[in-house]
Amino acid sequence: MAELETEISAMSNAGEEKRKQLNQIFDELKEKHEKNENIEVEITSLTKGGFKVDYKDLTLFLPFRLFSKNRNLSEEELSKEIGKTIKVAIIDFVEDEFVRDVRISRVKVINDELWKDIEVGKTVSGKVKAIIPQGIIFDLGGLEGFAHISKLSKNRVENIEDFAEIGETFNATIISADQEKNRISLSLRDYMHPRFASILDSLVVGEKIKGKVVNIIPNGTFVEIAKGLSGFIKNSELSWLKRSVKPEELFTIGQEIETEILGVNKEEAKINLSYRRAVENNWAEIANKYSENIEYVGVVTSVKQNGVTVLLNEEIEGFMPKGRMRALMNGNKITVKERDIVNVKIVEKDAEKHSMIFESAIVPVIREEISQNDEAVKAYIAKNKRNSAYSLGELLSEESKENLMKSK
Fold first, then answer.
1. What residues have CB less than 8 Å from 97, skipping those under 6 apart?
2. Distance set, CA 21 to CA 14, 16, 102 (Å)
């Protein structure tokens, strides 16, 4: 009996000693957690969902998801890790009157090392991991970076799916970084797209090139000439005959058109295109139908601070400067609006500049010339019904009015 009591006492003392030893280890880990210090552990075995690891005489649990950034490791690959000593971070320490628990992560150690190389302004190389409507997610070698669609290029990116492909590698600049939120923002605007360099080198100013209309904005049209690479047509390069032509009147999205290359900026990957230079220039032929110092009925197509653009016969436009608009001015204010019908006289034609200058007319229109405009004016009014600043009756001569009435 005495021997049994002695054995129980010895076991009790050993258990107490073991608890004391484990509590000392827990106290040590708690201190390391507070100081944000890493520890080394030995992987001893596989268990459900993770590894059993030893830190001194204390066994801890390391989930697979916190062991590696690769979530697709096979059981065979995981088994090869048994017996290895690895460095882990203490990410949480739970303590109450019933339990003391330590949570560890190897992934945090890996991330901390990777973040040491992350700094705003630094150039990095990233592989396309995912493409979403808002931008592109890049793999930076263990960390993820995001480039918003507005930061992909100095040019407007019309179709992000055409701009990049999964696995494609780009250079980028880190524009912001937040380790606590694990966010890295990137910009590709200062770097040439890897696919564009050879394309831009092959472009020759003056040559014609076909492309697809991908976007139309108020001041021009974007034409895709290669996957992800677009050139731009300014409105002034749309027509030889009309100054105020709108691109949506000529093109539809997806339409294939031929253009001429006006300029190439390889550093910024910008391409200037012309639509009118790829078609026949018939300005002189049309302009020769109209004589100087002869009056015509025209339609105002645009009003600017320095004058108005006037369309004749719905085929050719000219400009009427403010200084030549005395009959259409109220003090310093231009009184006409778009779609108003006006009488004008051609005072200058310049075939080289494709320019026709008008001045306003207040005397009766010459009969020989108005005959070719009557039908055009009536057609325009029928097509664009609007209260005009001037009535047709006010602009036509009495003889023209009579002819118009007879034609009804």
1. none
2. 10, 9, 16
Out of 2.40.50.140, 3.90.330.10, 2.60.120.380, 3.40.50.2300, select the CATH number for domain 117-187.
Answer: 2.40.50.140
Q: Is 323 exposed, middle or buried (0-12, 13-18, 19+ CB in 10 A)?
A: exposed
Check residue 15 and give its pLDDT: 63
pTM of the entire predicted model: 0.55
The CA-atom distances, in angstroms, between 223 and each of 73, 206, 258, 268 are: 46, 17, 10, 17
| Exposure b/e, 46-81, CB count within 10 A at least 16 = b | eeeebbbbebeebebbbeeebbeeeeeeeeeebeeb
Strand-pair category, 270-274 with 229-234 = parallel
Tokens of 266: 């390889």
Amino acid letter, 330: N
Query: pLDDT digits over 251-282, tens only?
Result: 999 999 999 999 998 877 889 999 999 988 98
The predicted-structure confidence for 81-103, as pLDDT tens digits, reads as follows: 999 999 999 998 887 777 778 89
Architecture of the domain delimited by 290-406: Beta Barrel (2.40)
SS3 36: coil
